[in-house]
Design goal:
This protein has helices spanning about 5-10, 295-305, 340-350, 390-395, 405-420, 445-455, and strands at about 25-35, 35-45, 50-55, 65, 70, 75-80, 85-95, 100, 105, 125-135, 145-150, 160, 165-170, 180-185, 185-190, 195, 200-205, 205-215, 220-225, 230-235, 250-260, 260-265, 270, 275-280, 285-290, 315, 320, 355-360, 360-370, 370-375, 385, 475-480, 480-490. By secondary structure, it is mainly beta.
Amino acid sequence: MTRFRCWLLALMLGFLGPFGAVHAADYKQGVESGNDSALIWFQSTLNTTWVDLHYQVDHGVQQNVRMQAEGGRFVHRLGARTGQVLHYFFTYNNGTPAYDSPRHTATVGAGNGSPPPAPPPPTTGAMRLQLVNGTGGAWSDQQVWWAVIGYDPVTRALSWVDRNGRLVPAALGDNDAPNRLVKNGQNYANYFSRLSDSAGVPLPRIDSGRMFISVGSPMYIRINQAADGRLGFAGPNLGNPSDPNQDVHFEWIEFTLDQYGYHGNTTRVDQFGFPLRTRLVGRDGYDRTLGETESRAKIFADFEAQVPAEFRPLVQRPWRIVAPAKAHFNHGKPQGHYFDAYVDEVWNHYRNNELVFTAEAGTFRGRVIGEDFVFSKDGGPANLYIRGRPTTQAILEGSGNLATGNPQELVVQAQITAAFNRHLLVHVDPSRWSDASAYYPRSPANHYAKFWHDHSLHGLAYGFCYDDVRGHSSLQEHPDPSSLTVTVGW
């Protein structure tokens, strides 16, 4: 899970958007086995034009691919041996809205399909969520707010977690409930608790969860309804100058807690508000902490002192440090063409030289032909494309022609996006593309992302949406978690 990558960001409303409930009749799915291969298929009964598959083989690294339309189904073929276990779920659209399916499992060679697993039993306390005030007195417990919002894994209804750890279905009427929040004449649902009232809860199983944390004020989150009646929520949108959260100090953690355990991460993909640390403890003695340990003031000062001049305007005192494409690196902004010269260098170099790199999905070979970067996989045909030169915004956000095509093209595009951000193309041999010490050797590069790696425990951070490529993100996972402790810094 939670890669929380560009495929997810593209589906969000604002930063966070509506994933509605899934009904049993929405689709059929299954797995067909071949010789050292498997085909995962999805057949929708809705107005579905695309399906993303998220899968693991024997609990390995999660892969996220766009499925191909074939014979009235959406399919994805992968290499897998008889007896290997596939864990997977789908993200699919019904016109404009998009939905996550429940998680499925199948054993390769065990038959022509796998029915959805039995829903997990209703439970509170799959693990303990604990919040710690580490602000050093800057904010009292009464001034620290938290809320957990996500999807009930049984009903797929948008829900929130109350102080007793119960999943409570969200309702459109929550925007106008007696305990509602009001700002600038607009009403908002209030799912927030003060740390002084509740420092933690027994966390139930929940899909596509967000733990929102703010100091000084709760956040303003509005429940909305799609055309088909399904509920979603609109979170902070820093691209909107009138967003009510512009003058709120906030952060969030992205996670899923399911029958396979806890999968979650902090993120700097959009912004930094204040330091966060997450400590994940397993019932087998597993204990790992990730995040930032420095003070907010030091992080702000170090950012302004250590990043190149082009990146310093990303500091928006007193509120946050924003990601490049959210500010001066966006279209029409002063650094809107930041990567252009490097893109030209890459295109010119690989017009005359072959790029060869190996990733989990295979070995890829590519050359620039015309204006397209064309790749083959594992000695196969050269039919995987990056069509045209990517823009600075496409590189920073993994969007446009770096997020388009069939599943294998998306694999290539994720690798190339990461290589552009880390300035690996042309200048660093692909044999070192997994070596973090080789990253960011020169400009242009995503120095915003580099900064978070330099200032995070173990050098792990989500500084851009494909920072998980080759395993350098802040993802925390454990199959049998006991507790997650979130420390709010300042």
